[in-house]
């Protein structure tokens, strides 16, 4: 039973707003919600409001979770590989329909920011708490690198956005620390990391399609898969004919395939953009000798945690915004190296030269901290606590005004 005494017919109604959903879109947050929402449905009546990724009725129910199409499916990325402002604005305007929907808690993913503005208004009018899940904090320097001269606009939107929720769920301790850095200690934040199904992963056998190196993630620029291809070419030039499997899809897939051809390593690189089942993903990870993640920016690093749980050695690169390196540092078979091609090549060559790279059947004890049972309990507790605190319209309005006035 969820605490707070505010459930309707024994279950609280949660309206969850996110523009991307698995299996229609792939990424760390999609995998988080794909595993989390059905588990939360045991405690709450979960309604997901998203784009219309599917064909058929606008509303359907699966695994006790009801999905609502708020707007047509729009591309989340432009041809340049950046997030689409048009898609974000359309999704934000579409979220106004929640003003006419019943819910006890309004929960939203931070991306793509714009929708948090109308959701704040709706939560205030309906006297309901607004909770937001925060994967990463960019800050002004990251926005300047991403949008160049428009970086100030991205930072302005982000700086206002994380003042809008009544409570923030941060997916890592490092994200929590960065939120406090910009907002001060008064901001209400709970760290709830991504979870992992430890038992299910342990039961999956490695694929017979073995490979030297595997990487998993959305194929976009900051994941730096293009650097991994340069590393593979450098290894081949050194006489280390490593094979590589790239699991994921995104706007840069065709460019990466062309790069592999130009580097003359296309026969050693396999692109897998249609891996849908988690079982298949884990089986392919276990079939590798080394998992490599070179992302320059990770709010948590769910793929790295999955590789760790699979018992595969993990290598990631140093970067200020790559929080996955903290997972690798804790791992008994984890490695962190510099971010240049030569440094990564040296690290990969050294690891592949080892003889004990087979998939381990046991996981480090600390991985148990990320079990889904623990994650669900923490989120349920947040829902109950926020409902109790924000029962009066005056309290919500005052909180909103104070939050906008800080800094």
Model description:
There is one protein chain. The chain has 407 residues and is of the alpha/beta class. The protein folds into two domains: 12-195 and 371-405, Glycogen Phosphorylase B (Rossmann fold); 198-367, Glycogen Phosphorylase B (Rossmann fold), CATH 3.40.50. Helix content is 40%, strand content 19%. The chain has 15 helices and 16 strands. It has helices spanning 28-40, 85-94, 116-126, 139-147, 151-161, 173-183, 198-202, 225-237, 253-263, 278-286, 302-310, 324-330, 341-352, 372-389, 393-405; strands at 12-17, 44-52, 59-62, 65-72, 105-109, 130-134, 167-170, 189-191, 211-216, 244-247, 269-272, 288-293, 297-298, 314-317, 321-322, 334-337. The strands form three sheets. The chain has an eight-stranded mixed beta sheet, sandwiched between helices. A six-stranded parallel beta sheet has the order 11-10-9-12-14-16, sandwiched between helices. A two-stranded parallel ribbon has the order 13-15. Strand 10 (244-247), helix 9 and strand 11 form a beta-alpha-beta unit. It is globular, with a radius of gyration of 22 Å. The relative contact order is 0.13.
């Amino acid at each position: 039973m969820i605490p707070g005494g505010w459930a309707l017919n024994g279950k609280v109604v949660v309206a969850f707003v996110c523009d991307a959903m698995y299996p229609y879109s792939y990424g760390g947050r999609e995998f988080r919600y794909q595993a989390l929402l059905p588990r939360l449905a045991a405690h709450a009546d979960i309604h997901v409001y998203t784009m219309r990724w599917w064909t058929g009725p606008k509303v359907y129910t699966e695994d006790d979770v009801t999905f609502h199409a708020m707007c047509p499916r729009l591309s989340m990325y432009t041809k340049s590989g950046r997030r689409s402002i048009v898609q974000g604005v359309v999704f934000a305007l579409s979220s106004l329909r929640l003003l006419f929907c019943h819910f006890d808690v309004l929960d939203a993913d931070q991306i793509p920011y714009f929708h948090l503005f109308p959701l704040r208004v709706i939560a205030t009018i309906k006297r309901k708490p607004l909770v937001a899940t925060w994967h990463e904090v960019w800050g002004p320097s990251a926005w300047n690198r991403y949008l160049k001269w428009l970086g100030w606009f991205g930072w302005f939107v982000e700086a206002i956005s994380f003042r809008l929720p009544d409570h923030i769920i941060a997916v890592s301790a490092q994200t929590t620390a960065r939120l406090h850095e910009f907002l001060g200690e008064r901001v209400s934040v709970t760290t709830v990391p991504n979870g992992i199904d430890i038992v299910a992963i342990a039961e999956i056998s490695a694929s017979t399609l073995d490979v030297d190196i595997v990487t998993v993630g959305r194929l976009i620029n900051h994941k730096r898969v293009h650097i991994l291809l340069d590393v593979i070419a450098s290894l081949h030039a050194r006489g280390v004919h490593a094979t590589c499997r790239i699991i994921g899809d995104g706007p840069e897939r065709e460019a990466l395939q062309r790069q592999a051809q130009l580097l003359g390593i296309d026969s050693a690189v396999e692109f897998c953009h249609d891996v849908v089942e988690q079982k298949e993903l884990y089986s392919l990870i276990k079939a590798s000798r080394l998992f490599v993640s070179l992302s320059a920016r990770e709010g948590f690093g769910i793929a790295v945690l999955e590789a760790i749980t699979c018992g595969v050695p993990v290598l990631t690169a140093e970067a200020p915004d790559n929080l996955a390196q903290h997972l690798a540092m804790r791992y008994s078979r984890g490695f962190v190296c510099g971010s240049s091609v030569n440094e990564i090549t040296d690290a990969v060559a050294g690891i592949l030269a080892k003889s004990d790279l087979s998939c381990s059947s046991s996981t480090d004890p600390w991985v148990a901290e990320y079990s889904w049972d623990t994650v669900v309990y923490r989120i349920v507790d947040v829902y109950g606590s926020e409902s109790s605190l924000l029962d009066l319209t005056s309290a919500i309005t005052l909180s909103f005004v104070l939050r906008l006035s800080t800094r």
